Amino acid sequence: MFPMMPAILRNFFSKRATRRYPPMTREPFAEVRGELKNEGSVCTLCGVCAVKCPSQCIVVDKKNATWQWDPFACVYCGVCVDSCKTGSLRQEPLYRKAATGREIVSVKIVLKEQTK
Amino acid sequence: MPVSTIPFGPQHPVLPEPIHLKLTVEDEVIKEVVPALGYVHRGLEKLAGTRDFHQMVQIVERVCGICSMMHAMCYCECVEAMMGIETPPRARYLRLIWSELNRLHSHLLWLGLFADSFGFESLFMQFWKIREKVMDLQEATAGNRVIVSVNVIGGLRRDLSPEQQQTILNILDRVEDEMRLLEKPLLGDYTVMKRTKGKGIVSAARALELGCVGPTLRGSGVAQDMRQLGYEAYGDLAFEPRVEKDGDCYSRLKVRYREVFQSIDLIRQAMEKIPAGEIAAVVKGRPEGEGLARVEQPRGEVFYYVKADGKKYLERIRIRTPTFANVPVLLAMLPGMCLSDVPVIVLSIDPCISCTER
Ligand code: SF4
Ligand code: SF4
User: Fold this and answer.
1) What is the CATH number of domain A28-115?
2) Which chain B residues are closer than 8 Å to A31 by Cβ?
3) Atom of ligand 2 nearest to the CA of A81
4) ipTM of the predicted structure?
5) Which sequence spans correspond to the domains of chain A?
6) Residues A20-69: pLDDT tens digits?
7) Following DSSP, what letter does each residue of A5-65 receive, concatenated?
8) Where are the domains positioned within chain B?
9) Which of B57, B76, B185, B197 has the fewest CB neighbours in a 10 Å radius?
């Protein structure tokens, strides 16, 4: 007679399925591929990440010793993290917040040899 | 009766993707249908000239968001066959698990959209609520919600820990339980039957003749499923294609509803049998020659052709997606139907236009 009834009753007595985003967020999962971070301290500016990146959004500038990443062209695939031999790259489990303008993330790299 | 022409799409509330159908109607009965495609062509095949064959994995994933895993898997299988790489057994099972998760969330998405196409909004919300669990599973295990990006040539980039496997099984139990609760409102409802039974009928012979694939073909009574080829670990598991006889929208609905349980069952079987070991083989050299691969996606058979000459970039990659094969049969379903049935019939083939146009 009322085929939907069991589902409706269950919904009445269960937790709500939605949450009031953005004030309310859920805990991120540990292994999520979120924002990309370059630690900088161990990066050797080898440029492997820039070559491997399928969306070509990393620029390694050896002359000025900078590592640049365009978060708006990045597809968060994690290929760069997997290919970085020094372990300098990692992905935070959090996604980037919405932005009002475009920006390029630039990290100044101080090479080990120079600090010695 | 005067004849008039009515456009369906490219923007239509029932279908978020752009396909244009020029409908010639006489007294609200469809006489002729002329399709127009090409609104979202992105030229992904052409990118093979500027991205090397490893990077193409991430490119082909973006052919279709819903079945990204299967596109990448099909492409990897194709290149692996060309290079003579044997993927480790564990990778074959993991690929199966992730591709069945993809199929699950794709079918749940479609079940919701289909309910929406005949105005059953509350059912739409129920299905999407269940789907959210599968999306969360993908996010927790693969790292991304939609484009899971787990494939590399030679195997996989991610493994499933025993805890993750248990979480998947626990959540699938709940998915199954909630799906059973929706069987009656979906398949036993008077309105649903009224809107779907006897609409858009296509016979088995006609469907085969038009090169129809996937659940649309199985809804017409042809037991054809590319998973029967036994690629990846499918050959090791017990599996029968889900088939319905009538060839109408209701049959196609039933096929997809039953395939949700089939996917859950396949994942459970795979979890029981999954061997330990490596998840990726070592890849050396570059592909050379020509290769083909076929994989069953939620919408049907996808077909990859790759041509390479041992250079860094592939020479040619050609993708035939399931919706491309199902458009001719859609055009055969529509004539003789009422104008108000068009959204339901169009959705019954589960069209994925961005896939079709690549
Ligand atoms: S981040 Fe890693 S791969 Fe990229 S330049 Fe630095 S060391 Fe090389
Ligand atoms: S996550 Fe992917 S797209 Fe983003 S920078 Fe790394 S390789 Fe490039």
Assistant:
1) 3.30.70.3270
2) 140-141, 143, 158
3) 6
4) 0.81
5) 28-115
6) 888 888 888 888 888 888 877 788 888 888 888 988 888 888 888 888 88
7) HHHHHHHHTS--S---TTTS-PPPPTT---SEEE--SS-----HHHHH-TT--EEEETTTT
8) 39-357
9) B197
